[in-house]
Amino acid sequence: MTSPPQAGPEGTHALGEVSVTGTGGARGRAVPEATVARLAVYLRLLGELAEQGTETVSSDELAAVCGVNSAKLRKDLSYIGSHGIRGVGYEVGPLLRHLESTLGLTHRQSVALVGIGNLGHALAGYGGFGGRGFPVTALFDVDPDLVGIKINGIVVDHVRDIPHICRERDVTIGMIATPGPAAQGACDLLVRAGVSCILNFAPVVLQVPEQVEVRKVDLAVELQILAFHVARRHLAGLDSDLSGRDAVNGHVGERARGGVMSELASESMSQHERIAPAERSEAVQ
Known about the structure:
Distance between the termini: 44 Å
CATH architecture of the largest domain: 3-Layer(aba) Sandwich
Shape: globular
Radius of gyration: 20 Å
CATH topology of the largest domain: Rossmann fold
């Protein structure tokens, strides 16, 4: 049985690997995209351990809470030159700072969101981005009922103002949550503003210059992938005896998305009465 398609980078330049900065600032070896995604998960869990006052953690313990096996975790961390201490494991603080540096989180980030429909409104109202080093500093839409209102203290501007506002606020990352037909236009405006990294929630493949990095999040595709696994388990007779098992999910991709998306779902439900309908986000001209 063939595997389903995977969500991830889009555009003509995605190679499936990235180069990271290793210890001492030297440019490191190529790292698989899947490993980069897991590094972000390790960082999130290390942050939680640091908040709890934990000073050291073994590879087995860290792997368990991250949903991977310890061998994979050690291999992932070896890409960035972190090998741990025999008999001790990893020092939480130093490893946390090393991952932050490797993932570029020691540099100031500023995020712009284009499209304030149902999903966009939930993203704009989500407070977790700022806490993780990605403050949303600009919001854009074309709906006159939305332009001018404040969400989390940020005024929604018209999409035609994307170029100069993004430059003024030093936006480094753009998020697109428009309807499909409007996404490419929004993307073009972000690129014109000098934004070179884009997170795309719209159900289209964006055409971008080679130097622009695009990541695509398609929730329908994620559901289709889960349906694939449901069908495969059903065919294998694995549906029985699944309830009540106390096991860690080994699919880090699901864990990585689950943290933010479950929080977004909760906030979206609480905002239900004041969220603007998605249909009110018109196509960017």
